[in-house]
């Protein structure tokens, strides 16, 4: 029975991770645009920043920490999901796909000229994944065999809330950005 429960939890986790990755792809390379035509406002911007915490994170001669924090937060679920699906993998084996996915985003942004490719983003995203792995470890220590089930419930609630927010943004019920 325990194997079947674990298998069902893995199916739920896989589904949630798939939705998460789709949302992440929509947010990062597609800049939350609903069509390729809308994406044109972000094109023709091809830049590489290899100096951490410089360039794109400097606004008015100050580090724009919000972007870094958002990158960390955006990739924390990646670390949690990969830990849930591959609990026996070593720490570094879990971090490699997180950093690789982030690097892929940075390369795609450069290739398609839809934003700056920034080492700070890569670092923040990877840190988010590392924190996610750490969160999973804490949940396992606190909740033992129930950790995945609890995380799946929390992730389901979070996914519903995020998709509700996206729906409200798409329909214009709430607006993001300037109100000019």
TrEMBL record:
It holds the Pfam family VanZ. Residues 19-139 form the VanZ-like domain. It comes from the Bacteria. The keyword Membrane applies. InterPro entries: Teicoplanin_resist-assoc (IPR053150), VanZ-like (IPR006976). Keywords: Membrane, Transmembrane, Transmembrane helix. The chain crosses the membrane at residues 12-30, 63-83, 95-116, 122-143, 150-174. This is Integral membrane protein. It comes from Halobacillus karajensis.
């Amino acid at each position: 029975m325990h194997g079947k429960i674990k298998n069902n939890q893995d199916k739920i986790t896989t589904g949630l991770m798939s939705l998460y990755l789709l949302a992440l792809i929509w947010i990062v390379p597609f800049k939350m645009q609903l069509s390729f035509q809308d994406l044109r406002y972000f094109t023709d911007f091809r830049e590489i920043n290899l100096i951490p915490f410089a360039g794109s994170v400097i606004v008015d001669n100050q580090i724009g920490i919000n972007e870094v924090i958002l990158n960390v937060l955006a990739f924390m679920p990646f670390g949690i999901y990969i830990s849930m699906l591959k609990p026996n993998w070593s720490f570094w084996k879990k971090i490699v796909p997180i950093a690789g996915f982030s690097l892929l985003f940075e390369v795609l942004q450069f290739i398609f000229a839809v934003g700056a490719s920034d080492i700070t983003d890569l670092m923040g995203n990877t840190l988010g994944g590392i924190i996610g792995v750490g969160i999973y470890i804490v949940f396992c220590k606190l909740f033992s065999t129930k950790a995945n089930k609890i995380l799946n419930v929390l992730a389901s609630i979070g996914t519903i809330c995020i998709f509700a927010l996206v729906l409200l943004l798409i329909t214009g019920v709430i607006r993001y950005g300037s109100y000019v």
